[in-house]
Design a protein that fits this description.
DgcN-like_C; globular; DgcN-like_N; DgcN-like; six-stranded parallel beta sheet; five-stranded parallel beta sheet; alpha/beta; 33% helix; DUF1611 domain-containing protein
């Protein structure tokens, strides 16, 4: 069963909730971002976690599928976003266990659940659903580059999995709190699960990337903002293509550059250093100007989750002074985040 989205209206297949989050055998927290995103932004829809040797944890109660079903869960969500979006052979038995416990399975992986014989057979036998959300809608078109009405903000990054989704969600909430007419536009599987609709950009054929991004944020009232979740990084040797298509098609008026201090190597690679914040600003502005010459950088979002509060505050203040831009950790909030919000809206 595929979840086909209408990105123009943000509608989607209604997913069975609450969720049991499946962490599988994940040892890198960066690859568990789906589980962490659901915990942080849809925690009321998550009853617990289930793993088979994972060394990362969401902190939610550890449950078997049967225990989760008894606690009210209706679906197991694959909370992993690994390189290539593959479903490991060792995952099959626990996924079948979830089906047998009475749970549907929701996946944001590239691999299709229905194409795995053991899962397809078990689902058919038990009357359970296999739901893939990483499926683009039909009828995508190539990008036109034509200017659209309304205002747009795109989160971009120096690397993958460092806060683009969290920043977009936090900015959307902050805009709404200020009375701004705003929509969060999801572009990845976790964002789609949180928002209930969107465009799975990394599953779109390259020729249609820009067109898909245009469909995601259509013409709007002049004062309306679409805050668009970024994907990948223009600097990543594997994922730069989706970043560029999203940048051109989104035509952002404002970018916010996301960065994790201390990260020196691009996620999932060896020998590729992360760029500086200045390099990320410059390249995104240069390439983004192709479809929106008025593009500007509204500020920088730092992921300071590995720092204590005092260290984070000092770094945020120093980077803001050094760059001459608002800098904040959207999750920590505070006056620095307020300044970032104002910098984006000005």
């Amino acid at each position: 069963m595929n979840a086909h989205f209408d990105p123009t209206h943000g509608s989607a297949l209604r997913l069975p909730q609450p969720y049991l989050l499946f962490l599988a055998d994940t040892v890198d927290a960066g690859f568990a971002k789906t589980a962490f995103g659901l915990r942080d932004w849809a925690g009321d829809k998550c009853v617990g976690e289930f793993a088979i040797g994972a060394t990362v944890s969401t902190g939610l109660p550890v449950m078997t599928p049967a225990q989760a079903r008894a606690a009210g869960a209706r679906a197991l969500v694959i909370g992993v976003a690994n390189s290539g979006g593959v479903i490991g052979d060792t995952w099959i038995a626990p996924l079948v266990e979830a089906l047998e416990a009475g749970l549907d399975i929701v996946s944001g992986m590239h691999a299709r659940l229905s194409e795995i014989p053991e899962l397809a057979e078990a689902a058919a036998r038990l009357g359970r659903r296999l739901i893939d959300v990483r499926v683009p809608p039909t009828g995508l078109r190539v990008g036109t580059g034509a200017k659209r009405t309304g205002k747009r903000l795109l989160t971009v990054g120096t690397d993958c999995a460092l806060g683009k989704k969290y920043t977009a969600l936090a900015l959307s909430s902050a805009f709404a709190a200020r009375g701004v007419d705003v929509d969060f536009r999801a572009t990845g599987q976790t964002g789609i699960m949180i928002a209930g609709g969107g465009m799975p950009m990394d599953a779109v054929v390259s020729d249609f990337e820009a067109g898909a991004a245009e469909m995601l944020s259509p013409d709007a009232d002049p004062d309306h903002w679409d805050v668009i979740e970024g994907q990948g990084s223009l600097f990543h040797p594997a994922y730069a293509a989706v970043s560029l298509g999203l940048l051109h098609g989104s035509q952002p008026d404002v970018i916010v550059v996301c960065h994790e201090p201390g990260r020196t190597v691009m996620l999932g690679t060896e020998g590729f250093a992360t760029p500086t914040i200045e390099e990320a600003i410059a390249l995104n502005l240069e390439l983004g100007a192709r479809t929106n010459p008025a593009i500007r950088c509204g500020g920088v979002a730092l992921n300071t989750s590995q720092l204590d509060p005092d260290e984070a505050a000092r770094l945020i203040a120093a980077e803001s002074e050094r760059l001459g831009l608002p800098v904040a950790d959207p999750i920590r909030g505070g006056a620095a985040f307020d300044a970032l919000v104002e910098g984006c809206l000005k």
